Amino acid sequence: MHLLLVFVLCGLWHGASWTFLVWGLWHGAFLVLERAGLGRILEKCPSPVRHGYTLLAVLGGWVFFASPNLGQALAYGQSMFGLSNGSAVAADFWNREIAVALALGSLFCMPVMPWLRTSLSQAPMLKPALEFAKLGIPFVLLLASTVYLASGTYNPFIYFRF
Questions:
Q1: Residue 43's domain spans which residues?
Q2: In whole angstroms, what is the distance from residue 137 CA to residue 127 CA?
Q3: Cα torsion angle, 95, 100, 101, 102, sign
Q4: In 3D, which of 67, 82, 83 has the Cα closest to residue 26?
């Protein structure tokens, strides 16, 4: 119970809005469930399942954190899981850049480097390429992200409402 209260207070600390309160409840509820037995079940699951669970739990919380009100948060959440036609959300946010970012993010949020390391370890002549990729790919992605953000339109900081 104390854990849930701490996260509710964390939500209220972020802002005096129902969305922040629900955000705190959301994360607190997941922690309570994990300590009540869900954690032991998840430990037995394969790594990709645990990774997907974590992503869904965190992204679900971000919906509440970033939404201006509960109605929009619920509508966005329904659209995320295909429970509505999603036209309002899709019309506002879906474009080619988002599709590419979603595809790349979906690919690279998984443990790609360990998989590559294991796969390429059977070809020793590719070891220098793997070492370069380990340093080069994050650098290129950081550079591309910085250029994209610097050339984009103004986006207020997430705490602009305070």
A1: 1-86
A2: 15
A3: positive
A4: 67
* 155 pLDDT higher than 70: no
Active-site residue, selected from the candidate residues 2, 14, 27, 51: 14
- To the query of whether residue 14 is one of the catalytic residues in this protein, the response is yes
Q: What is the pLDDT of residues 135-144, one digit of tens each?
A: 888 899 899 8
Alpha-carbon Rg for the chain in angstroms? 20
Residue 58: pLDDT above 60? yes
What is the pTM for the complete model shown?
Answer: 0.56
- The number of angstroms, rounded, from the C-alpha of 67 to the middle of its chain's C-alpha atoms is 15
Q: Answer yes or no: do 17 and 61 share one domain.
A: yes
| 107 and 150 part of one domain | yes
| Position 7, amino acid | F
The amino acid sitting at 55 is L
pLDDT recorded at residue 36:
92
- In angstroms, the Cα distances linking 56 to 1, 99, 120 are 23, 18, 30
